[in-house]
Amino acid sequence: MSGPEITEHLSPNCGPRRDGLTPSLIVIHYTAMDSAQAARDRLCDPEAEVSAHYLIANSGETLRLVPEDRRAWHAGAGEWAGQSDINSRSIGIELDNTGTQPFSEPQMQALEALLRQIMDRWSIVPAGVIGHSDMAPGRKSDPGPRFDWARLARQGLAQPAVQTAKDQTPTEDSFRAAACAAGFTAEVPLEDLLTATRLRFAPWRQGALHPADLNLPVLD
């Protein structure tokens, strides 16, 4: 399947990847701005000191802002699978979305096509496709509860949720252990960690810790 048509609009906000690292992760964001043009302008503004490798508009138009071999400034503080400096380990994709609206079909199709290309190019496994909130619990909430992770997982473009329930009463310790095994950092307040895992795998679930919250995948 061919990839999306990509327009190059390079941002000055980037640098070399540190310590010879190459991308092993893809981090998905939403822009939380009013338009793709406003997001593009900010991601290319030297004073903003933020960027991403790609920006996908609601229409599906895809912009390349930073070459994949360069370190974009999209992730910020956080970690995944015990590793920090996510910017040096990842490719960042910004989706034109306020954070409260559905993601459009053209945008999702463009994202899926782009993910296939990037994953093939860098040998990134489905478990390496994560959300900003996954690596920064409590600090970030994007791509948010409206993002269809299950759709990506059905195509092998993200880690699927665990379907088999664990028959045990959850404790804070057992939940933190499960979250850590799934790649999340356990070094955050319980409420933030619970919100992050639910945003990713069960955005409909609310309330206190539930046995189903232990149903998290285990990273290889």
Description of the structure:
With 220 residues, the chain is an alpha/beta fold. It folds into two domains: 6-154, Peptidoglycan recognition protein-like (Lysozyme-like); 172-214, no CATH class. Helix content is 29%, strand content 14%. It contains seven helices and eight strands, in the order βββαβββαβαβαααα. Strands 1-5-4-7-3-8 form a six-stranded mixed beta sheet, with helices on both faces. It has a two-stranded antiparallel ribbon with strand order 2-6. A hairpin with a 5-residue loop joins strand 4 and strand 5. The protein is globular. The mean pLDDT is 96.
Largest sheet: 6 strands, mixed
> What's the helical proportion of residues?
25-40%
**Class from helix and strand fractions:** alpha/beta
Strand line-up in the sheet with most strands: 1-5-4-7-3-8
Residue-averaged pLDDT, rounded? Answer: 96
Shape: globular
Distance between the termini: 28 Å
Q: In sequence order, what are the helices and strands, one letter per element?
A: EEEHEEEHEHEHHHH
Uncertain ranges: none
In total, how many beta strands?
Answer: 8
CATH architecture of the largest domain: 3-Layer(aba) Sandwich
As for the number of domains, it is: 2
CATH superfamily of the largest domain: Peptidoglycan recognition protein-like
